[in-house]
Amino acid sequence: MERTANNGTYDAVVVGAGAAGLACAGDLSAEGLRVVLLEAGDTVGGRMRTDRVAGFTVDRGFQVFNTSYPQVKRRIDLRALRLRPFTPGVLVHTEGGPRRFTDPSRRLRESRDLLPGRLASGRDLLALSALSARDALAPASVLRRGSDGTTLDALAAAGVSPRLVETFFRPFLSGVFLEDRLETSARFFHLVWRSMLRGTLCLPAGGIGAVPVQLASRLPRGALRTETPVAALTPGGVTLADGSEVPCRAVVVATGQRVAAELLPGLRVPDGRTVTTVYHAAARPPSEEPVLVVDSRRRFLNTCVLTAVQPGFSTDGRALVSTSVLGSPGATDMAPLLRALGEVYGADTADWELVHRVTVTDALPAMPGPTPLSRTTRWAPGRYVCGDHRATGSLQGALASGARAARTVLEDLRSGAV
Predict the structure, then answer these.
(1) Is the Cβ–Cβ distance between 363 and 47 less than 8 Å?
(2) Which among 50, 17, 5 has a CA at the least distance from the CA of 322?
(3) Which residues have C-beta within 8 Å of that of residue 238, sequence separation ≥ 6?
(4) What does the angle CA 395 – CA 400 – CA 404 come to, to the nearest 5 degrees?
(5) Phi, psi at residue 347, to the nearest 5°?
(6) 196, containing H or E segment
(7) Lower CB density within 10 Å: C or N end of the chain?
(8) Residue 373: pLDDT above 90?
(9) What is the C-alpha to C-alpha distance for residues 267 and 264, in angstroms, rounded to an integer?
(10) Is residue 19 a contact partner of residue 399, using CB atoms and an 8 Å limit?
(11) pTM of this prediction?
(12) What integer pLDDT is reported at residue 104 of this predicted model?
């Protein structure tokens, strides 16, 4: 049974069962509040969804799971996800052949490409070492309080040469930020670089959708209602698409930025970044290594053999290759993409089968620097908003924003403000 007050009014309605909404609803429920989480879709996760297509496990857009995020450590049972890691570092396809960018402290024997003159100059390596040491060792609070600009500004200030920016940082970070101008907030770049140095990039055995499913499993029975779209907020709660009303004292809008702006007229939201991921099946794996590959010519954002990371993503023994590109490419762009992949992997891609393609609009909020790393979750009396678009474009940002909204709701309810 759903928990409501004697008069049928919830303490809080949370709209949207993505990561932020799940964190918010979970924290409010843990404090004993009567909460209902309304999700328009058929399951939880928002953009963190996993589908089964033609015998393959495919996420809705290429996504990785970073174990270093504080909110992840607090909320997620990592063992239950049955994580398998990527090889630390990145393989960069350059005109001179593949070059491995890796952390020498993790894989010293594989860091020969970081010798001066291969991937970078001696001066670049000194600059990179200083940048990495600072970001890895400094408290996150120090990085958040630093001066802001663009990522390109930050790299220049660190002494990284334009050559290394074009060879490595722009190709790699384009896939992280989903923009290739390196205009993303410098402070956010430092936090992301820190998380990569301190954590491990992995994939759950059940796909990225296993993360929100685990969060949802901890909600009280009856607290989650899927396929329940909210049409509007009202003075006394929310109106559903079927015309019925759900009364409550507080409403938290935890949807993506576009829907949030519709439900909260006047809310300013950032632009979104769009990415397309294509999934190919190959009879033979083009690589046996679970490594992320980027292209210095930027013909794609990144590619990897997913079944080298999680073999269970395929049920028929074929390899599953994921490749992401900015925006929404047309059908005529697929042949050049396959040629590029054949060159990068050194493989014949003629018999690769396109098994799935997904374009994610607003996959990440745009964060051009300078930009605040968090925004208030209190919109109006009894009205709140959370999501990565109110924080940083990451799982950490979404979860932290949801937690912040829950604290604000609790404060207002207990003080009698709503």
Answers:
(1) yes
(2) 50
(3) 13, 15, 38, 230, 231, 232, 245, 246, 248, 251
(4) 155
(5) -135, 155
(6) helix 186-198
(7) N
(8) yes
(9) 6
(10) yes
(11) 0.94
(12) 59
- For residue 253, what is the enclosing H or E element? strand 245-253
> Which amino acid is located at 11 in the chain?
D
Q: In which order are the strands placed within the sheet that holds 353-365? A: 97-101, 90-94, 292-295, 302-305, 319-326, 272-282, 353-365
- From the CB of residue 339, how many other CB atoms can be counted at a distance below 10 Å? 12
H/E segment holding residue 336: helix 334-345
Backbone angles phi, psi at 38, to 5 degrees: -105, 125
What digits encode the pLDDT tens for the residues 168-206?
A: 999 999 999 999 999 999 999 999 999 999 999 999 999
Between CA 360 and CA 272 the distance in angstroms is 10
C-alpha gyration radius of the chain: 22
Phi, psi of 28 (to 5 degrees): -65, -40
**Residues paired with 14 in a beta bridge:** 37, 252
Question: pLDDT tens digit string along 285-321?
Answer: 999 999 999 999 999 999 999 999 999 999 999 999 9
Helix pair angle (19-30, 395-415), 10° resolution: 40
In whole angstroms, give the CA distance from residue 97 to residue 94. Answer: 5
DSSP 125: H
What band does 331 get if pLDDT is binned at 50, 70 and 90?
A: confident
Q: Which one, of 134, 100, 139, lies nearest residue 120 by Cα?
A: 100
